[in-house]
Design goal:
The chain is α/β, with parallel strands linked by helices and about 350 residues long. About 25% of the residues lie in helices and about 25% in strands. It has a seven-stranded parallel beta sheet, with helices on both faces. A six-stranded mixed beta sheet has the order 8-11-12-7-13-14.
Length: about 350
């Protein structure tokens, strides 16, 4: 059965999810929301460099609700001060009987640990509309929940779980996230909200707790640690110039502590240029990967590369397709706010051979 989908957002990740919806054999795009007035009235396919899809972009939410689609793929802005607005936007669809998948609310990856101010409106909307909501991605998401949980099925004695995201954001063009939230291009003394507001635990504490729960561990606390690194020369990247001596790499850990020691750790090693922080962890090949290290019996190390020839989009493609490919399972699920633990195995049915003649820019 083909599922009718409304898509929301054509930014860095949203455009990739839109491509995935258009190519999925079980999905039919019936509506597209855009925020930019210059995109209103343009064809969905043409907006992302594909042939015409026969669906015109709109900023009329009521018109999209009237379509009574099976699912909304929401990849709008839900970071920081936009979180509440994103919840309300998605709740309108949930109340109207449309299921929702999203990558926009990291806090909802593990609903058990989410802020009630975000979780409760979504739960109420699901109950009213008889619908389901699923937020995931590459991380928080697949790289830090399903991947380590799957590998744990191979373990006997488990001593610790460490998930590393190693990413070069040179091509990521989202100014506020890069400069204000991450602090790239800022002086070393800059007080990034990522490290001063509890955001690390808010965004990544859920997957740490999820893995801890799977292990049957009661975490004593969650700790945050971070480090910064600079380059000795100016560099030009997607968000503009990063001056010499300013922040060019950030590293942080969200640690689940048991008995005074970190037992479940999510670690990010994030650069804005390949030359930054040369002593920090690197991928075995390329600039972008997830690495899971399980200490115990046996010791397991698994590295997942996310390379792509289209300007470093591998990680963003993985993030967006994690939820697009989950749409059939989410539509079939019982109503409520879901996590990875509530869904069956999800996989892609977008066969590349069917699109071999198409280009994506």
């Amino acid at each position: 059965m083909t599922l009718r989908v409304v898509h929301w957002g054509t930014g860095n990740t949203g455009r990739l999810a839109l491509r995935g919806v258009l190519h999925h054999p079980d999905l039919e795009l019936v509506g597209l929301y855009v925020h930019n007035p210059e995109k209103v009235g343009r064809d969905a396919g043409e907006l992302i460099g594909l042939p015409s899809a026969g669906v015109l972009a709109t900023s009329d939410v009521d018109a999209l609700l009237a379509l009574e689609a099976d699912c909304l793929s929401y990849l709008g802005d839900g970071i920081g001060p936009r979180a509440g607005a994103a919840v309300e936007e998605m709740s309108r669809f949930l109340r109207a009987g449309t299921n929702v998948v999203s990558t926009s609310l990291n806090q909802l990856v593990h609903p058990k640990t989410a802020d009630p101010a975000l979780l409760t409106p979504l739960e109420d909307a699901c109950a009213e509309g008889g619908t389901s909501f699923f937020n995931n991605g590459a991380d928080p998401g697949f790289g830090s929940d399903l991947l380590p949980l799957t590998l744990l099925s191979l373990m006997d004695d488990v001593e610790s779980v460490r998930v590393q995201e190693i990413v070069n954001y040179e091509h990521y063009n989202q100014g506020w996230v890069m400069r204000e939230l991450f602090g790239f291009g800022q002086a070393l003394g800059y007080q990034s909200p990522l490290f001063t507001s509890g955001a690390l635990t808010e965004y990544w504490g859920g997957v740490v707790t999820m893995v801890g729960d799977a292990l049957g561990l009661e975490l004593d606390e969650i700790r945050e640690v971070h480090d910064l690194a600079v380059l000795d020369r100016d560099i030009d990247v997607a968000v503009g110039r990063i001056p010499a001596g300013s922040v060019a790499a950030i590293r942080f850990e969200v640690q689940g502590i048991v008995g005074g020691a970190p037992v479940v750790v999510v670690e990010h090693d994030t650069r804005i240029h390949a030359d930054a922080a040369p002593s920090w962890p690197r991928c075995l090949g390329g600039d972008n990967c997830y690495r899971v290290i399980l200490e115990g019996r046996p010791r397991l190390t698994c590295e997942l590369d996310m390379e792509d020839e289209h300007g470093g989009d591998g990680g963003l493609i993985a993030c967006s397709m994690r939820v697009v490919n989950a749409i059939p399972a989410v539509c079939a699920a019982s109503p409520g706010v879901l996590s990875t633990l509530d869904l069956p195995f999800v996989f892609s049915r977008n066969i590349a051979a069917a699109h071999a003649s198409e280009s994506f820019q």
